[in-house]
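Researcher: Sequence of GNAT family N-acetyltransferase follows. Predict its structure.
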Amino acid sequence: MRIRTISEAEVESVAGFAVDEPVSSITGDRFRQEFTERHFRPEWTWIAEDGEARIVARALWWGKSDSEHPVALDCLHVVASVEDRAALAAELLAAGHTAFERDGATKRPQYNISLANGWRERPDVAAAVAWRSEAARSAGLTESVERLRYEWTPEAGVPAPATRLVFQPDADEAFLDAFKRIAVGSLDVATLRELPVLGAGRQAREDLEFYLSCPGEREWWRLAYTPGGELAGMAIPSATPYNRNVGYLGVVPAMRGRGYTDEVLGEVTRLHAAHGAELITATTDTTNTPMAAAFERAGYRNTEIRLVFEAAAI
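Model: Prediction complete. Tokens:
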């Protein structure tokens, strides 16, 4: 078996590679289009060939058009005729990770699997997820979490203006402090895993830098205060290359349990709606039931599950 990246001339071969399972499907049209936009690239596209030079496995890493390194693995597939699909997939991932790290990447990209709600009830989907999960963990993506994906559209209505909080812009240092305070007692799985390893200061700095790197505008960011001037939380409306996104929101520990999450989420939704957004996406962990309930109260609709694998924080 030969494992390698592709050349520009092989785009059609990769685009035409059939995925015959109900997960990890990226259409040929999407691959071609996003390849021209540099979301997919030759050096991020890895294949395995058998002894007759037929493609039997494919891993497609995705990044922003201006990314130096890939952000996430969007598609992983091995044909059913391969005896040990998980083992070959793990080899493919390991080869990609080694190359990315050689090129200067300091963190392995996440692996995201988009799934329908109730996916465990479908044996074909559960089986497809099982060997991919084994491959991801074998390749060092040992942490996993399931996240609910939500969507808001104008038909859901725009939330009424906040009546109990005041929203104001501020400098990066003020947002760093808010990140550190909101992390305490958070229900977010990634925050809970990273905080003991990274420490509050480094985690806050990495969160800040991540949202600054997203396509959203820095001028959208707001801190939320009570009328008396106490910090209640923050809202970081954001965007992806495809649509507007809720980004990050949170309430500081001392202000939790007062319904402020609804007002902070409402501020994000109103800002995006005022700029003409036809779709706003959001995610939260399946275990974060208070946040899921807030999305549903605000008219966001749960559309799918996202299973995310990533390397442990170091």
